[in-house]
Amino acid sequence: MAGKLEQQKQEKKQNLLTAALELFMENGVAKTSIDQIAGRAQVAKGTFYLYFHDKEDLLQELIYRISCHVLDEAYRAVDSRRTDDFIENVILFADAIIEYFKRNRLQLRLIERNFSWPLVTRQMSARTDAIWQALIRDLQASPLARTHTGDEMFKLIFVIVEMCGSVCYSSIIEEKPDTIDNMKPVLYGIIRRALG
Amino acid sequence: MAGKLEQQKQEKKQNLLTAALELFMENGVAKTSIDQIAGRAQVAKGTFYLYFHDKEDLLQELIYRISCHVLDEAYRAVDSRRTDDFIENVILFADAIIEYFKRNRLQLRLIERNFSWPLVTRQMSARTDAIWQALIRDLQASPLARTHTGDEMFKLIFVIVEMCGSVCYSSIIEEKPDTIDNMKPVLYGIIRRALG
Amino acid sequence: MAGKLEQQKQEKKQNLLTAALELFMENGVAKTSIDQIAGRAQVAKGTFYLYFHDKEDLLQELIYRISCHVLDEAYRAVDSRRTDDFIENVILFADAIIEYFKRNRLQLRLIERNFSWPLVTRQMSARTDAIWQALIRDLQASPLARTHTGDEMFKLIFVIVEMCGSVCYSSIIEEKPDTIDNMKPVLYGIIRRALG
Amino acid sequence: MAGKLEQQKQEKKQNLLTAALELFMENGVAKTSIDQIAGRAQVAKGTFYLYFHDKEDLLQELIYRISCHVLDEAYRAVDSRRTDDFIENVILFADAIIEYFKRNRLQLRLIERNFSWPLVTRQMSARTDAIWQALIRDLQASPLARTHTGDEMFKLIFVIVEMCGSVCYSSIIEEKPDTIDNMKPVLYGIIRRALG
DNA sequence: TATGAATGAGTATTCATTCAT
DNA sequence: GATGAATGAATACTCATTCAT
Predict the structure, then answer these.
(1) Strand F bases, protein C-beta under 7 A
(2) Distance between A166 CA and the closest CA of chain B, angstroms
(3) Do residues D92 and D182 share a domain?
(4) How many angstroms separate the CA of B34 from the C1' of E13?
(5) Helix, strand, or coil (residue B100)
(6) Is residue D169 domain-resident?
(7) What residues in C contact D180, CB-CB < 8 Å?
(8) Which string of b and e fits C5-35 if b means at least 16 CB within 10 Å?
(9) Interhelix angle B150-168/A150-168, nearest 10 degrees
(10) Which of B52, B72, B95 is where one domain is finished?
(11) Which of B173, B154, B160, B165 has its CA nearest to residue B67?
């Protein structure tokens, strides 16, 4: 059967990604060698190059996958607790992302400032595309749509996401200027005023 | 004379910093070797280790110096055009920083998300300290002081600076989601509402 | 039908040879991988090993085929313009070879100093054998036969062919010490004196 | 003393060249790794790159040095047995080169067809330059000078050297079409006629 | 026969760091 | 202090060859 081989290949690629993620989080990207990644994935070194062009290529794929995963989880969190208040939904969304990174500090350290890119830079996969469509629908149904064009709304959301990501990084990774829990009120205050 | 020797040493250190800055901006930090830095600074490789522990050490010093320089320039820009409106002064400050990085894209690329740290992380030099004192005084004299504690104000400002830095990076370096000039209205809109 | 299968195999082998020749001439032997050869020949990498033992094996076959082709063409050129003067016929032969390599510099570069081998080293195929027989007949009918043994004549011709091949390489590939056209008078002068 | 360090460096370079020559002759260029060269020269691998850009760079230097050495030796051989007959002197020269390569087959295998280049391609060192000057003087004093221009004489000699080198390679390395001793009469016969 | 995924030994090259001068 | 030759561990990447399908 043709599908079986393809499945084995996907499995091997997944093994490499998983091994790399673990090692990147344990020792950092720079201090992880292809040797180690292949070793932990239980494949030969040459096999790595069958699936990725180089370490950077793998890292990009990893960041993309994590970002999609975070967005997916965040959007489902909003869906399950959705209110009638648009702004509160946005804050729920931001909070879900923040909570994810609180639970997964090492992933945040890995991603650094590269989160949020998948929304803009990459071809969207079926999965991200679905989330994105839903977000757009929500935005257009919101009170914001009465006073802002689509482009304006997009930029506004973009800046808010950047702000959250940036503060996440500082406060979760470095606890600067304070813990993320102590930064949340400030952050959500700004979001409320910005969208209100 | 002892002073002359000291002066020569400072000059050598400065040469190394300048050489490194040039090379980092030309080729990136990772692709710059200590060989190259020493070469361009016209000193022997061993001499490098007389002044810095390693490349990272030098990079931190560089980031610190650039950050101080940006803040200094921004604060002086505000001073020369200062209005009675606190919020507009904050925006003048942000704008001065943004304009600096517009003129010095490569420095922004080098600093990445590390800007703003000197305010918080480092021992303050006489110079930064003075700016910082002035900023605190301005903040305490502002209308904000009536509704916020010092700590709250600090966090608020911190988040705003992070937001500006982050958007600077995206829009100046990657033009995402738009040019920085097109992002300014969104950014300043958020600042006005956040502080208003 | 067995013949059809055999034909398909020969076609595949020919495809591999053609692909390899192109790649060898484009990038050089060392910088051509079996991957690339198989790729251009539109067969799987493993298939390569069904037809050749390794890259060197294929290269030898290629050199042999080219050499035969050159000799064949040169001999036919002499035949069509044959004179009564033996020495002039030899020069016609040399000239035909030189002109071939002028038109096919890249083949010359590939063959390097390996031309002329097929005359001596390899089992002769029906084709080369025929040419060789004709050459021998010509030699024995020549005035040279009166003063030289067969062995002496053979060595004489061998040295002349080596000389031509060597000068071809220098002058066509490197234009040293001059272009091949400017070297011809010297070369043919030596041949005339050597045989005269 | 400054000269001592320089001397040590030259010694190290010489060690690398010697080690490489040995290994190239034992196992061939392709099958010799930088590792091995450095190992046999008793230096660290990195040291290799202090003296040569890569293996090819070293090989060129080796070929150049060997060529100079052969020419030097051949010219001195002629000097010590010089006759009044120009042609016989040329043959003495050729014979000295041939005898050198008979004694040093492996060097011939290494140099392949690259011998004679130093005369034409490279900046001449003081040493080669001296030989070259002497050769030119001899040529101009020869009877050949009465019937040939300098350029013609140069090309004639060039072709003869190429011929000798090429036949050396075939007969010494591969004994084709016969041993070099059996080829000599043919070779010298051609030289006599070509110059006579 | 044909395939192409997998292998892993092999190699070139870089570069931070040391230390004798 | 200053030098720069020497080091050698570290690492990325290639590619001929095999073999299960």
Answers:
(1) 1-21
(2) 6
(3) yes
(4) 16
(5) helix
(6) yes
(7) none
(8) eeeeeeebbebbbebbbbbbbeeebeebebe
(9) 120
(10) B52
(11) B165
Mark yes or no for CB contact B166/A113 under 8 Å.
yes
Q: Per residue, what are the HEC states of chain D?
A: CHHHHHHHHHHHHHHHHHHHHHHHHHHCCCCCCHHHHHHHCCCCHHHHHHHCCCHHHHHHHHHHHHHHHHHHHHHHHHHHHCCCCHHHHHHHHHHHHHHHHHHCHHHHHHHHHHCCHHHHCCCCCHHHHHHHHHHHHHHHHCCHHHHCCHHHHHHHHHHHHHHHHHHHHHHHHHCCCCCHHHHHHHHHHHHHHHHC
Q: Does B175 touch chain A (CB under 8 A)?
A: no
CA R_g for chain C: 19
Distances (CA, A) of C28 to C25, C102, D153: 6, 19, 35
Omega prior to D185 cis, within 30 of 0: no
- Tens-place pLDDT, residues C35-56: 999 999 999 999 999 999 999 9
Q: Does A59 map to a domain? A: no
Q: Which of D87, D111, D158 to mutate to test the interface with C (most CBs of C within 10 A)?
A: D158
Residue nearest to nucleotide F11 (CA to C1'): A33
Same domain, B29 and B106: no
- Let me know if residue D57 belongs to a domain: no
What is the per-residue pLDDT across D45-89, written as a single tens digit (0 to 9) for each? 999 999 999 999 999 899 889 988 998 899 899 999 999 999 999
Query: Tens digit of pLDDT per residue, chain B (196 long)?
Result: 557 777 888 899 999 999 999 999 999 999 999 999 999 999 999 999 999 999 999 998 998 899 889 988 998 999 899 999 999 999 999 999 999 999 999 999 898 767 766 665 555 566 677 777 888 888 888 998 999 998 899 899 889 989 999 999 889 988 888 999 999 999 999 999 999 8
- Neighboring chains of B (3 or more beta-carbon pairs < 8 A): A
Residue nearest the C1' of F8 (CA based): D44
CA distance C153 to chain D (A): 9
Q: Which of B113, B120, B194 sits opposite A190 (nearest CB)?
A: B194
Closest nucleotide over all strands to A9 (CA to C1'): E5
Q: Which residue type is seen at B160?
A: I
Question: pTM of the entire structure?
Answer: 0.86
Indicate whether A58 belongs to any domain.
no
* Cβ–Cβ gap D155/C178 under 8 Å: yes
Residues of A 2-31 whose CB lies less than 7 Å from any atom of strand F: 5, 31
Give how many domains chain C has, as a whole number. 2
Residue B166 near chain A (CB below 8 Å)? yes
CB < 7 A to strand F: residues 49-88, chain B: 50
- Domain hosting residue B20, numbered range: 1-52
Q: At what angle do helices C86-103 and C150-168 cross, to 10 degrees?
A: 30
Query: Looking at strand E, which nucleotides approach a protein CB closer than 7 A?
Result: 1-21
